[in-house]
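Hi support team,

I submitted a single chain yesterday and got back a structure, but I'm not sure I'm reading the token output correctly. Could someone confirm the output below corresponds to the sequence I sent? I've pasted both exactly as they appear in my results page.

Thanks,
R.
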Amino acid sequence: RREHNCEFLVFEETLVNSIKLADLEGTEPVQKTGQVRWYKKPNPTAMYSVSLDPSAGTGGDYAAIQVIEVNTLEQVAEWQHNQTPIEGQVRTMRDIMNYLREEGVYQIYWSVENNTLGEAALVVISEMGEENIPGTFLSEPRKGNGRSYRRGFNTTNRSKLTACAKFKQWVETDKLKIKSKR
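Hi R., thanks for writing in. Yes, this is the structure output for that exact sequence:
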């Protein structure tokens, strides 16, 4: 009887090639600020993207914040939680950007998903005062002359497919450097 030392990698299809996923190795954070895991000390001369994907904060879907060093496409920090209300999610995002500013970073660009729960995040940002959040708030371009323009980015099935395709390409070609073990 023959024995094989084979490892079954995945049972179902994944967005990113399963062999590539198996090869990815996360790293331990170099530090934590609250519940934020930092994988690299901020570089004052680099540009950073900070994005919030909000959730209801009621124990189901997770809210997530990702910090990417734009110059290198390296994941620098992350936060996720499924029981933090929207106010706490926006406050955490602001705290991340305040930390970046304290570390001497001035090229900070940030945004939020603005559909469904993102609308609540926009209300919190407005109440908090956008001017009290370091960096530049990025939004998709205005379309037409409609009065219903909202800040941030609206995600649709089409835009999610486009983003997922780009994410897949960047991960599989090692352009985007994921540091999280999660």
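A quick pointer for reading it: The chain has four helices and seven strands. Let us know if anything else looks off.

Best,
Support desk
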